[in-house]
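G., the chain you wanted modeled:
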Amino acid sequence: MKENREVSPKVLSFDFYKTSGSFASGFGLEVHSYSKSYSFENDDSSVNLSAVGLLYGLNFYYRGDFWYPFMGFGTGNYSVKVEEQLTTEGSTTYGTVFGQVDKPFYYKFGVRIPLNGIGIVFTQQYISADLKVETENKPLSLGGTASFIGLYYAF
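Predicted structure as tokens:
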């Protein structure tokens, strides 16, 4: 492969939680999406992968003075579309496969830094979402380890 396996997902996250003193717990909902194209050095073959994940789980927070550390875990659903162009000895074949991982697992931890209703969030997340590829009898990993930096709004 000419490219590395790293992807740049877009993530939209909602957290609903109830505070009790300095601690809070609640429900989180996340949507992840990414696309990646791969080409190969030996021939003109290529693979295009598009994935969308809907994850939900439990989150726990500590509401400190300057920062709010958190952790969470959960499950959800990952869907993928794989388009393949295979070139061998002068002939080209095309194929499209749709797949789904019904029970991915994730855990995350991070910190929120509040700034009067808005703030900055730093998150480290691990997602296990392996799709079994029937033709190769091998897993295609749709998850992995991710580091996110973003903005949040609290109301």
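The chain has one domain: 10-153.

Shout if anything looks off.
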